[in-house]
Design brief:
single chain, alpha/beta, TIM Barrel, Arc Repressor Mutant, subunit A, five-stranded mixed β-sheet, 14 strands, 10% strand, globular, disordered N terminus
Amino acid sequence: MEALHFGQRKQQFTLWVELLKHQHIRGLTQEPFDQRAGRFAIGFSPDLHHHKGVIAKDFEGYQNLCKLVSDAHVNGVYYKPRTDIEKLAQYSKGLIGLSGCINGVAAQYLIYGDEANARRVTSDFVDIFGRENYFIELQDHGMPVQRRIIPGLIKLANEFDLKIIAANDSHYVYKEDADPHDALLCIQTGKIIADPNRMKYPSQEFYLKSREEMMEIFKEVPESIDNTVHVAEMCDLEIHFDENHYPVFEAPPELRTFKEDASTFDRILDIYEVEKTKVNKQDGKDEVCKLTKKERDLHKSNGTLLLELCKRGLLDRYGVDYDNRSTYTPSEGQRADFAEFLCEQLDYQIAIIAGTGFIDYFLIVWDFINFARGKGIPVGPGRGSGAGCIVAYVLLITDIDPLRFGLLFERMLNLERVSPPDFDIDFCMRRREDVVSFVRDKYGADSVANIITYGTFGAKMVIRDMARVNDVPFAEADKLAKMIPDELNISLDASIQKSKELREEIERNPVARKIVEQGRVIEGMVRNTGKHACGIIIGDQPIHNLVPVTLQEGDLTTQYAKGPAEDLGLLKMDFLGLKTLTVISDAETSVKRLEGMRDFDIEKITLEDSKTYELLNQGKTVGVFQLESSGMQSLCKQIGLSVFEEIIALVALYRPGPMQFIPQFIRGKKDAKTIEVPHPLLRELVSETYGVMVYQEQVMEAARIIAGYTLGGADILRRAMGKKIASVMEAQKEVFVAGANKTHGMSFLQVCSLRSGILSQIN
């Protein structure tokens, strides 16, 4: 990384980015600039590669930088990513150019005494970037060759009236990190430190130097230090993370044959205004939400289509005619106003989906799932918080009835914590790519990309790698690595604290001490890249306009991990290839063929099938997803499963933490007298789980019942508990206590005791 050294810290958000750490500029021809071809020539052999620093000074520059990096990775790879002079000229707007290190074009000519060509290529780059955006870069890492060409670089700057900047090629942060960096180079290149012919940096000066150090090095050209501040001030890049770059769903004509119910959708948007106003008031804002006509029309464009599809699904799933609700006859056990209640819930959910800008999101998901079902591709029943959404259920995005299973819409989407909905969608492993190809064809191959993953050096891995490059025998290296405790994501520091054996080895063995000390520096750094198993990014424009892309296993892949890619407003979907669905599909086919049951449909098998429970209670669960372990076989025999909800509870409880409550669950099932509830107010809430708080939905409902939380507010509490976010938990404690006191007159001690009881049952 080439670091510019700023004379002062800017108190505003600026960003500059190098083209690539080892990005190359490739010479194309020995001819001068050809107006007809639009080509810049830089006067050296085409097989030479040169470095150039490029900085984004605004958002257009950032976009052009993304395009340059993407092109280098997708089209320009020859051992390393590289771009050429035409591309640099094509995407130069909004960019600042630096002449580069000793591998820069002009620097290389100066090294060989060719001042004429150094001037010519400098002139070419001035033409590309503009005089005000091109800077001559001075570097001094104690290398004689660098010092030798500094006068020539200064001469170029004076001749072309260019500013000089002081830079330092920084590959590590602190000077004492030089040796760990050297070891890292050996890891990356497959060499050992003792190899005299390996790649090695010529000095230990490639660290991030202070202003004082840089002033001492370039005291003869003090303006070079101040000019770095000038470069910083030129950078004014603002990235709008609140912008939505989801593609707009383009409905085929056959879907637009219905009569648009604009008045009903206006009523639904009224619901959003009311709910948003409530949240504003709750947040201390005296602000009434009022959508403009333009906003309403925008929501209606695809909102009416979403409503129509939901109407059709409501009739298919529940037998409720949205426009003629009075014709519905409630079944036994249903509330008398079930049809009205269901439609009100649907209206509310569509209102929140519309107001938060996720109408197209739902239609896109519906579209590719509809494609899969139409092609006979097995689709999973649905996972993630999206399973709590009635809209998703009636659209056939999920097959889990949220009403039956008490799932909450607010876990997926609420106005108090607006974040993208979460649909984890499983497809038959064999045909997953068919669905991904459909999405690529519909939204454009350059607008759909896989997501990169970054593998980092863990404690055991860094010990093994460091031992290898230090030429430590395998047996000794293996012994040292095995001293690291077998704990997930444990660090070297934590390992030293927990392992007496490791501490003693470090004290006794200087080689081990060196490996661990240098390993601490490298630990957590990126070791390798890969491709997310199921994550797909979809945008409303070519991905490289917002995120640089590369190729992983031949597929277009983002260079940003999933978090930053989503933050930039791109749509992330999980398309998981699930082997279980393939097995089920094959089994269904076999039943049809071997048993002659042509109409057999596994989706129509009732969840109350008694013969299935007989098998499960005998422990015959080998091959049954999530029930096949010996522990689960034993639990199935102990509990005596009788309803599907007990299977769900058992799977939820069979994890570290909640596992301790399994005996209580079984006792409650066998003898209702043994059931203990966290509080009498929660008796009904925990009745189906025999007094045990099993689900996060129960936590949310408990917060509502005890402390008067809204379900949106309860979701914030749930997330904090699940992710163990201490600061949010502490803030929520005050809210919970105050709410319980106001709602039920509970004392502080009563609330704390209840809260601790709930927390003890949730992991």
